[in-house]
Amino acid sequence: MSATVRIPTILRTYTGGAAEVTAEGATLQEVLDSLDAQYAGIAARVLDENGALRRFVNVYVNDDDVRFLDGLATPIADGANLSIIPAVAGG
Amino acid sequence: MTVTASPAIGSAVALKCRECGTRYPLDASYACYECFGPLEVAYELGSVTREQIESGPNSMWRYESLLPVVPGADARPGLQAGFTKLVRADNLARELGVKSLWVKDDSGNPTHSFKDRVVAVALENARRLGFETIACASTGNLANAVAAAGARAGLKSVVFVPSNLEAGKIVTTAVYGGTLVAIQGNYDDVNRLCTEVAASRNWGFVNVNLRPYYAEGSKTVGYEVAEQLGWRLPDAVVSPVASGSLLTKVDKAFREFIDLGLVAETPYAIYGAQATGCSPVSQAFNSGQDVIRPVKPDTIAKSLAIGNPADGPYALDVVRRTHGAIADVTDEEVVEGIKLLARTEGIFAETAGGVVVATYRKLLREGRIDPSAETVLLNTGDGLKTLDAVEATSQPTMVISPSYDEFETEYNKVVS
User: Fold this and answer.
1) Pairing of strands B39-43, B101-105
2) Smallest CA–CA separation between A62 and chain B, in Å?
3) Interior angle at CA B188, CA B319 and CA B112, nearest 5
4) CA–CA separation, B275 vs B334, rounded Å?
5) How far apart are the C-alpha atoms of B319 and B217, rounded to whole Å?
6) B211 touches chain A (CB under 8 A)
7) pTM for the whole thing?
8) Helix B331-345 with B351-365: angle, nearest 10 deg
9) Which residues in chain B have Cβ-Cβ distances shorter than 8 Å to A9?
10) Does B248 contact chain A (CB < 8 Å)?
11) pLDDT tens-digit profile of B382-399?
């Protein structure tokens, strides 16, 4: 399974400036593991010390917030589009 | 990226992560590189006296020395927001059986909502940082404020809104002549898109990359309440909760005034109000959770329809620390709240104001707020913006022909 992942500006120091990368995995957790294997340390920016998604990170799979899906266990279909985005309050 | 030596802007000295404390220069950034936490303005506040503030302009710029702006904002083109009325609400107090009640009526701002305050601070920083375009993701009130402020300041504006917004808020944005982008999605979809656009365009998004500055503008609501009460704090404030930012900044304003010695340190409680159809912060509060579970909004209170409120955890902290509460009300109660305030005080609030009035009434009925506590209700916007909400139940008492006899007959029926 291969997914496209949009990388926020904050994390592009890990990806050599790339705004979009590909990663492998059948679940979000596996995709993040795959990302970390390619770009060491990136997963620790997205996940807290307990391995949960950080409070101020939003991850979308094909436009759906993973908090509405199964979180890190969310299945990732081949060709899925993921976005990692800092939470912003708005108003 | 971590730089500590950057010039101060007024009393503001740095941006600081609310989660891990990492400091950054005062530029256009909003999320911590270490932990994604939101950045907030850090100050070194000098001494400020009541007299200095009182001799300032009759706008929010009287508190300029407590805001992250280059001194002299009053002289630069802007909308001169703030210093709105604090209305003594004796009729509503009598109706609800409470002792002392006030309405901070921010519908009196230039574009008729409290968003003029936050945009004013964001605009000052857009100018300082050299942006030629200001932009925002909005549920409507912010759209009005950004489009108008951009026009006054001579900057381009690009405003993103959900396409299902109230017709009034579309017109009152588009009229200012900027670019208005209607998105087929809800506010959270719009917000997400703007976060991505902000990463690729050199625009000042007031509530994305300028957010740390923008959010500080809400403090002026709290400053004004304290000054207008005669330099003291109320016992309680009821604030609407969308992102949660306003509620937390009112608290911050009160604490700053205490620290500066401008008001006595008296206990106050801050209460939050949400519409049941978008009540993630109320749900978290009432179930004792620290984590906000996002929801898909479904309420007439569209200006509060943020399903994934990023400042929600901080709003919870403030409410718990000050021994307040958060509650939510149905759309029917929102309409009742709007009409109750209009009928008793002659103030026509938008749906968010209806949420506040109805939530206050509910908290009283449930015994969760003290009726003897001097309370300030925040009305953040003008009912003319959300006519749809009350249209069905606000119609002529009678429709008659231009006949004296018919008037007498029909009128006597109504009054009898």
Assistant:
1) unpaired
2) 12
3) 70
4) 8
5) 20
6) yes
7) 0.93
8) 90
9) 199
10) no
11) 999 999 999 999 999 999
